[in-house]
Amino acid sequence: MNFNVRMLKNGIKRMATELDVLSGICGKEKMKAVKGMTSWNVETIRADFPVLSREVNGKPLVYLDNAASSQVPRTVIDRTSKYLAEEHSNIHRGVHYLSQHATTAYEAAREKVKRFINAKEAKECIFVRGTTEGINLVASSYGRKFIGEGDEILVSAMEHHSNIVPWQAIAEERGAKIRVIPMNERGELILDEYDKLLNARTKIVAVAHVSNSLGTINPIKEMIETAHKFGVPVLVDAAQSVPHFPVDVQDLDADFFVFSGHKMYAPTASGILYGKREWLDAMPPYQTGGGMIRTVSFEKTTYAPVPEKFEAGTPAIAAGIGLGAAIDYLNTIDFEAAASYEHSLLEYAAARLSDIPKVKIIGTAEKKASVLSFTIEDIHPHDIGTILDQDGIAVRAGHHCAQPVMQFFEVPATARASFAFYNTKEEVDKLADSIQKVIEVFE
């Protein structure tokens, strides 16, 4: 190994260890303090998010569009700004100070991801721009290697388009078939039908941990266990679960696990594809270019091992470091208490909206997380969203990239309020009052 390269790698390892130890100490101390609180102190948490203090249309902002993108705490903003202002440089291939420092910060973020989701090793955590890119990577790379003529791909009836369209594309290319796991009127997957769909032709199951349009928490661990009895790997779209409750990919035994940073208090263009090492090693590269090679000649190119094999070109460095900072932030709070608090908000909101005539909640699964989709009789969701915005209330209106779900419930679209641990019951009350105003406008 070249002396300079060896020196660089050793230096990076030392710096990463030092950073991890320091952040771990700070995180543990703050976690002790927060866990000592007798209840969730939402006002303390809200103070960490600058945007929550602003006004919209002359009203205090009520941000209830967290399923689309969560807000970013000051610590993450500051860490990302620090990189851009003081550390900006390309990573992995430079021997100068800035490049080494940026590489250390970026790879430290990968280590933080590994611990956050309890991956076996950091090399199983591939940086991507978000859940969509991660699913496309698996569909393309795994699909071209392992899916062939007559094979079957199982997806659920409640999937986001990002977990449908990539599989349709590879199925069409390879001559495979998409099979759909059905759901009931509550928005819950019918597991008996799922069991029947699995067979020797099934090559992969792709399913959401939490539905982005309904909030349903699917029994992922049970579904993975069932698929593995047939030797079938499972990809979990975790975009809506990782921000809202603790996850453990080893306990779930997930083969692939994909999530976005911008839904978990990090910048956009950050995300992770976790994959079991045996699958990642067996899969060909998704993209090619700089950074993912071992050797290149005009006769033949050989590829680097994971994770480099799947990280061609210059990555979104600032976003990756920001994702690490977001994990640092989440490690300073009692995440289980946050999840419990969010669930209480969801229950409170469901009760408030259920009491309003003409309002219908879409998706009433027994187990839900942080999403409340609803319609108002004879009022289009876009009109609902527009009038709510006049009161400073941000919700999402549309099909939520889940048109098959809308077709199942026979609605063109829904309005969707989605909650984070910085939202309050007072904001839910404002939502309910504003919905009442919407109804009055159209009477």
Structural notes for this entry:
By secondary structure, the protein is an alpha/beta fold. The chain folds into two domains: 106-330, 3-Layer(aba) Sandwich (Aspartate Aminotransferase, domain 2), CATH 3.40.640; 335-442, Alpha-Beta Complex (Aspartate Aminotransferase, domain 1). The chain has helices spanning 3-35, 42-46, 74-87, 97-117, 131-146, 165-174, 191-197, 220-228, 249-252, 277-282, 317-330, 335-354, 381-390, 403-409, 425-442; strands at residues 55-56, 59-60, 62-63, 125-128, 152-156, 177-181, 202-208, 234-237, 256-260, 271-275, 293-296, 301-303, 359-362, 371-376, 393-394, 396-398, 414-418. It has a seven-stranded mixed β-sheet, with helices on both faces. The model is unreliable at 1-38 (pLDDT under 50).
Uncertain regions spanning at least 5 consecutive residues: 1-38
Based on secondary structure, the structural category is alpha/beta
User: Per CATH, what is the topology of the largest domain?
Assistant: Aspartate Aminotransferase, domain 2
CATH class placement of the largest domain: Alpha Beta
- Round the mean pLDDT to the nearest integer and report it: 93
Number of strands: 17
Distance between the termini: 76 Å
**Helicity level:** 40-55%
CATH second-level architecture of the largest domain: 3-Layer(aba) Sandwich
In CATH, what is the homologous superfamily of the largest domain? Answer: Type I PLP-dependent aspartate aminotransferase-like (Major domain)
Shape: globular
Strand residue content: 15-25%
* CA-atom Rg in angstroms: 23 Å
Taking the sheet with the most strands, its summary is:
7 strands, mixed
> How many separate helices?
15
Strand order of the largest sheet: 4-10-9-8-7-5-6
